[in-house]
């Protein structure tokens, strides 16, 4: 499942809020009602039950709100969403902040609500900061699907998870342990301090490392805020502060690319191990030049595609978000909703010199 979407491209590029000018239709919510919305004060009555045969209404107004624009990872995910939205004959509005800060998405959600977005696909910079804005959107009839980085589950209808958090955490620790012989000082270069996804993975990485590799010591976690330059500087800072550092784990595509760039031009190249989550296209040169041996990720395009299909299924009333319901996600096939309204895309892939040229994203 790595190449099915590669030929598709965004119609107009993803370089700014200009894309937001794509016309949104008036909110009508396709005649559906919200399912059992336990704990949500979003306002709608819980009356609908799922109708798996319901038609996806044409012209649904989708919004894609990543943590930040101009992050290659989210640009790829947006391409996947664009493909799915085209398949269900909807309209897609890609919009968002340039910085991945905690509250930066709030005003974008408010605007989307005013414009009548019917399906909001978002990766949250913070588990709580956007909740009341999302509540308002849902009160107006919008379906909210988080993908990549969740909110509090009460603030959305579904979360599309790239893989299990345990699987993502363990893959990174296992790769690092293999490279440093299971022992020594390791630091984490994360994204923003509030990011739901990175914080979940870091907690699980710490737990798993303590159990499986007691001689591996995680000495620090620093935050590059998913900014290239800050991530680069934080890498430099780690190496200066911890002269015995054996490795850096960066569970963010922005962080790992910046750290690789720093290491590749420094005396630490090949001496300090680097792994984490990166896109093959950004990391290829650093695998080829010996800076990085292996790292992991899922296919962001498939993540965006699955999120959009989940939003369409919600808007159609095929699903309400309850555990056990199933829906069809186009070329990806059938998915089942798990506990806490979560849908899991699949397993992360590990990339190294042997397979990196098989991937193009
Ligand atoms: C960055 C973002 C995103 C994360 C990836 C791995 O692009 O922080 O949320 O899932 O890295």
Automatic annotation (TrEMBL):
Residues 32-51 are annotated as: Disordered. Its main location: other. One of its GO terms (cellular component) is outer membrane-bounded periplasmic space. GO terms for molecular function: carbohydrate binding. Residues 62-318 form the Periplasmic binding protein domain. CDD domains: PBP1_ABC_rhamnose. Residues 1-20 form the signal peptide. Transmembrane segments: none annotated. Keywords: Signal. One of its GO terms (biological process) is rhamnose transmembrane transport. This is Monosaccharide ABC transporter substrate-binding protein (CUT2 family).
